[in-house]
Design brief:
Layout: H1 5-19, H2 24-28, H3 69-72, E1 80-84, H4 90-99, E2 104-109, H5 112-125, E3 130-134, E4 147-153, H6 162-172, E5 173-187, H7 192-195, H8 198-203, H9 211-220, E6 224-233, H10 238-241, H11 247-255, E7 259-268
Parallel strand pairs: 1-2, 1-4, 2-3, 4-5
Antiparallel strand pairs: 5-7, 6-7
């Protein structure tokens, strides 16, 4: 039976509540961040290293990203930044190093365990201008025209209604504000076995949509000056794909022109 958008949200929430209680080593040993799903494959097929970025807090890095949006977000001192799907706070803390003491960083997440970790990490780091809010990206509890910059790292592909997500992003941004988000998109259609599998959906692949559709949603939501700041192909190992595809389907998939990409996209309101 086809999963509803509500079912998908609850599945993703449950998945990431579990992930929050694991170490980065456990999460990086799995394509979807928890044991039981391709747990012999390194998550590095998706993630990028934060080591060179100022403000990086290793204890807040669960290894779940697919890019470095803070590196491309054109952050400046004094700005208000919103991180969508903020997890344990990693991108928020990096963003704080750019906006400084006069800036403000807000992390939004709907997984209670992630929020608890992020709040605890902020306390340990003694950051008074970084806060975390519980909320749904499709219905953000954030005031309209209140944010200068939005960042997000490998989260929007997990949101069932991407039109609503980008419309909400447009609403909360100030006029002249912008976003830089890293996400996973597709070139060509994934096999049905992947699309309908909950583990892969909560991972990083099957919640993704076509690249051209992704960019079209952004444009329809009212954004301008849309730019793909970075793009890289994600090579999913056979060990992962064979969990979902039989030998014949795997061979057909690999011989096709289908591609999975990590992209970082910038756009302005």
């Amino acid at each position: 039976m086809e999963k509803t958008k509500v079912n998908l949200k609850e599945m993703v929430k449950s998945k990431y509540n579990t992930i929050a209680n694991q170490s980065i080593q456990q999460n990086q040993s799995s394509c979807c961040g928890s044991t039981g799903c391709c747990d012999t494959i390194e998550y590095s097929v998706f993630s990028d290293s934060y080591d060179h970025l100022s403000g990086y807090a290793p204890e807040a890095d669960l290894g779940l990203g697919c890019g470095l949006p803070t590196e491309f977000a054109k952050l400046e001192a004094g700005q208000t930044v919103l991180d969508l799907g903020s997890g344990a706070g990693n991108d928020c803390f990096v963003a704080r190093s750019f906006v400084g003491e006069t800036g403000k960083v807000i992390g939004l997440d709907f997984a209670d365990n992630m929020l608890s970790q992020a709040i605890e990490n902020a306390k340990k780091l003694n950051y008074s201008n970084v806060s975390f809010v519980k909320g749904d990206i499709e219905e953000m509890p954030i005031e309209s025209d209140s944010v200068d910059v939005i960042i997000s790292n490998c989260v929007l592909n997990l949101v069932p209604d991407k039109d609503k997500a980008f419309q909400q992003m447009h609403r909360v941004l100030n006029t002249g504000g912008h976003f830089s988000v890293s996400d996973v998109v597709l070139m060509g259609d994934l096999p049905e076995a992947l699309i309908h599998d909950a583990e892969m959906y909560a991972g990083c692949v099957s919640g993704a949509i076509q690249k051209e559709d992704y960019l079209s949603v952004i444009k329809k939501s009212g954004f301008k000056n849309i730019q793909v700041q970075k793009e890289k192909e994600v090579i999913v190992p056979d060990e992962i794909l064979s969990n979902y595809l039989d030998q014949e389907a795997l061979a057909k998939f690999k011989s096709s022109n289908i591609g999975i990409y990590s992209i970082t996209v910038y756009a302005e309101k």
